[in-house]
């Protein structure tokens, strides 16, 4: 077979796959999320606040140092600037008592564009769920999922699957590749008739995006609003956000992509962290019910388990009381209520930073902020 003939054959096969498979064409090329998702897919603008809250600038640009280590690297003490440059950080922000103590921006960045946060959006979904509960759209996190998504009636495990199981990644659901394609890039409803369980609900913890796809659908159906709009109206526009923010959606059905695809600025992400640090209050006004914030950030989740994960928040040391929202490339909103410190890190993909002991690194910075 000639080279041109071979190329034509390969092209024909790819076209057949892309057009005939239950996977969308986009999914074959973009099955793993990356920072280009912001421009690759359709999105909606998330409304910011009418009044922009500006953080105070600290009187002195405080120097910070990090002792960095991995299982393979010795202890190395570096100025924080050098550490962040080495780890390919885009933005890094340290805020204490409403003042910016430290701010880093990649020197290559010339103008502002909304920065993807990946799975940090799951913490946004969790916050929206807390509000939907308070407003009575959802009765209880112990309700069965099928009460809100009646399509889910074809397996016995749906008779015990609760919203709480989805929220805390204990659904027992398995994500098959075709479902990943639809959940990310196709018609989300195509996911519903083909879900597969690998365990009974509540048996084991396994982090699955499908759990938050279902939560997003539940919020949208019960509130009768797109998730991004509900989030904007009830949270994002209430906390002094300033910069343009966007949230991607399913191009076929307009469902907001609950599992990711949100992008905003470091300072606005920090405001969400401060909202939680203040028990759901912003400028004295209760935005998220304080009991929901407390229940979501304690070491023991509502299933009665201490697994370091609670309502989409990663829980740190019980004695320190710290916790964080986390995205796949170490996008982080770290909150340390005892020291009134919020740290936001927005990193480029860099596999070396995934192995770092980030809890300890962020705590080092927190202690220096005192």
Detailed description of the structure:
This protein starts with a helix and ends with a helix. Helix 5 (120-134) packs parallel to helix 8 and helix 5 packs across helix 9. It has one domain (37-58, 78-368): Beta-lactamase (3-Layer(aba) Sandwich). The protein has helices spanning 3-20, 25-30, 37-40, 80-86, 120-134, 163-167, 177-185, 209-223, 227-234, 266-277, 290-296, 351-354, 358-368, and strands spanning 43-46, 56-57, 65-68, 76-79, 89-96, 99-105, 115-116, 173-174, 196-197, 245-248, 262-264, 281-282, 285-286, 309-310, 313-315, 323-326, 332-336, 341-347. It has an eight-stranded mixed sheet with strand order 2-6-5-18-17-16-15-14, with helices on both faces. It has a four-stranded antiparallel sheet with strand order 1-10-11-7. Strand 15 (313-315) and strand 16 form a beta hairpin. The protein contains 13 helices and 18 strands. Mean pLDDT is 87; it is low at 1-30. With 370 residues, the chain is α+β, with helices and mostly antiparallel strands. The radius of gyration is 21 Å and the shape is globular.
User: What are the segments in which pLDDT stays under 50 over at least 5 consecutive residues?
Assistant: 1-30
Biggest sheet strand order reads 2-6-5-18-17-16-15-14
Rounded to an integer in angstroms, the radius of gyration calculated over CA atoms is: 21 Å
Structural class comes to alpha+beta
Distance between the termini: 71 Å
How many strand segments?
Answer: 18
Number of domains: 1
The major beta sheet can be summarized as: 8 strands, mixed
Write down the overall mean pLDDT.
Answer: 87
Q: Supply the CATH class.
A: Alpha Beta
Overall, the morphology is globular
At CATH level 3, the topology is Beta-lactamase
Helix content: 25-40%
CATH homologous superfamily label: DD-peptidase/beta-lactamase superfamily
Strand composition percent: 15-25%
Question: In DSSP terms, counting alpha (H) and pi (I) runs of 4 or more, how many helices?
Answer: 13
* CATH architecture field: 3-Layer(aba) Sandwich
């Amino acid at each position: 077979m000639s080279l041109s003939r071979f190329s034509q054959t390969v092209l024909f096969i790819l076209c057949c796959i892309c057009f005939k498979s239950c996977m969308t064409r986009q999914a074959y090329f973009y099955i793993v999320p990356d920072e280009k998702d912001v421009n690759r897919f359709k999105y909606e603008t998330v409304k910011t606040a009418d009044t922009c809250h500006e953080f105070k600038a600290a009187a002195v640009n405080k120097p910070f140092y990090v002792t960095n280590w991995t299982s393979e690297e010795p202890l190395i003490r570096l100025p924080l600037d050098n550490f962040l440059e080495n780890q390919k950080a885009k933005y890094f922000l340290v805020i204490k008592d409403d003042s910016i103590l430290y701010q880093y921006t990649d020197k290559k960045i010339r103008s502002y564009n909304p920065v993807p946060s990946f799975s940090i959006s799951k913490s946004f979904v969790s916050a929206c769920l807390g509000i939907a509960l308070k407003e009575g759209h959802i009765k209880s996190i112990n309700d069965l999922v099928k009460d809100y998504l009646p399509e889910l009636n074809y397996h016995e495990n749906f008779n015990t699957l609760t919203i709480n199981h989805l929220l805390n990644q204990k659904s027992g659901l398995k994500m098959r590749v075709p479902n990943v394609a639809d959940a990310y890039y196709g018609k989300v409803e195509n996911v519903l008739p083909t879900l597969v369980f690998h365990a009974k609900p509540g048996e084991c913890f396994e982090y699955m995006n499908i759990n938050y796809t279902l939560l997003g659908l539940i919020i949208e159906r019960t509130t009768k609003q797109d998730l991004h709009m509900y989030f904007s109206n009830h949270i994002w526009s209430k906390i002094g956000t300033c910069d343009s923010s966007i949230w991607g959606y399913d191009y076929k059905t307009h469902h907001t992509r609950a599992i990711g695809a949100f992008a905003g600025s470091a300072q606005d992400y920090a405001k969400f962290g401060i909202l939680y640090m203040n028990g759901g209050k912003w400028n004295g006004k209760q935005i998220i019910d304080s009991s929901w914030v407390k229940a979501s950030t304690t070491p023991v989740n509502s299933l009665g388990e201490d697994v370091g994960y609670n309502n989409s928040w990663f829980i740190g040391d019980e004695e320190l009381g710290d916790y964080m929202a986390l995205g796949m490339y170490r996008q982080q909103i770290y909150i340390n209520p005892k020291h009134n410190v919020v740290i936001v890190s927005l990193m480029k993909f860099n596999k070396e930073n995934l192995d770092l002991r980030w809890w300890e690194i962020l705590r080092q910075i927190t202690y220096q902020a005192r």
